[in-house]
């Protein structure tokens, strides 16, 4: 099994998320706020993801809170 890859398209109001696990894609959309970040973690746990390589579109100031959240969490 290859390492999962998470792609995040960032906008002012929401995050459009794609998760690649092996050759299968999974998609979701969450709000670009603390509640949405928590929903993202819950969604990743649902897919049994504990470690992921992530990339995101750096859309000015809209990415900063997500970046801070991602660097602060340790998923268990």
Automatic annotation (TrEMBL):
<dbReference type="GO" id="GO:0006313">
    <property type="term" value="P:DNA transposition"/>
</dbReference>
<dbReference type="InterPro" id="IPR002525">
    <property type="entry name" value="Transp_IS110-like_N"/>
</dbReference>
<protein>
    <submittedName>
        <fullName>Transposase family protein</fullName>
    </submittedName>
</protein>
<dbReference type="GO" id="GO:0004803">
    <property type="term" value="F:transposase activity"/>
</dbReference>
<feature type="domain" description="Transposase IS110-like N-terminal">
    <location>
        <begin position="6"/>
        <end position="70"/>
    </location>
</feature>
<dbReference type="Pfam" id="PF01548">
    <property type="entry name" value="DEDD_Tnp_IS110"/>
</dbReference>
<dbReference type="GO" id="GO:0003677">
    <property type="term" value="F:DNA binding"/>
</dbReference>
